[in-house]
Amino acid sequence: MSCKGVTPNVVTYNTVIDNLCKDSRLHQALHLFDEMRAQGVRPIVVSCACLLDGLCKKGKLNEAIKIFTELDDIVVYNIIIDGLCEAGKLEDATNIFSKQFSRGLQSDCKTDTTLIKGLCKKGKLTQARQLLGKMEQHGCYPNDVTYNILIRGFLCNNEVTPALHLIDVMTGRGFSPDADNTSSLRDLLSNEQTEKSVKEWLQTNMKH
C-alpha cells in the first residue's frame, strides 16, 4: 500500500480495511491488516472490530480469534463472543467471557446479553438466569433486550412461571415485553391447557 515513500497511517489503513469488509473482500482486508502490522502500525479497536465482525459473519472464527489477541478491548470481546455463540461454540464463548475479567476488563450490557442469548439457544436457562443475577454485581444493568431474550428462552421451553416473574421485574424497572413475547403471552391466554394461575396473571397484566 505504501507508495512514493509515503507510509499510510492507522486512519488510512482503517478506512481501506473497513471498505473492503463492507464489500465482503475479507481476504484482501486480512492481507492489509497483516501489512499494517508489518509496517509497525499498531491496530486500533476500529481496525480490529470491522475485520473481526466480517470474519465472524463468514464463520472464519479461527482467523478472528488470532486477531482478537491483538487488543484487550470490550468491543472486540463482544464481537468474538457473539460470533462463537452464533456458531454454537458456547463453551469457547464462556471461556472468553471469563478471560476478560482476568485481563482487567469490565463487561458491558451487550457482552452479558450476548452470552445470555447463547445460553438460551442451548437451553441452558439456569445458567442464563444466574448470569442475569450476576450482572448488577459488577455494575452492569440489564436492559429491555436482556430481559426479553431471557423471557423468550423460558417461554420457548414452556417454563412460564419464571418468564412471568421476569416480566414483573422488567416492568417494575420501566421496560415492557417486546412484540414476540407479547404474542406468545396472548397465545397462552387463549390456550385451554394453560394453568388457571397463569391465565389469571395474564388477564390482570395484559389489559391491552
TrEMBL record:
Q: Which residues form the signal peptide?
A: none
Is the keyword Repeat in the record?
yes
**Domain of life of the organism in this record?**
Eukaryota
Keyword check for Repeat: yes
The stretches annotated as PPR repeats are 9-43, 73-107, 108-142, 143-177
Q: Identify one Pfam family in the record.
A: PPR_1
Keywords of the record, alphabetical order, are:
Repeat
Family per similarity comment: Belongs to the PPR family. P subfamily.
Q: Which PANTHER family match?
A: MITOCHONDRIAL GROUP I INTRON SPLICING FACTOR CCM1, TETRATRICOPEPTIDE REPEAT (TPR)-LIKE SUPERFAMILY PROTEIN
Q: What is this protein called?
A: Pentatricopeptide repeat-containing protein
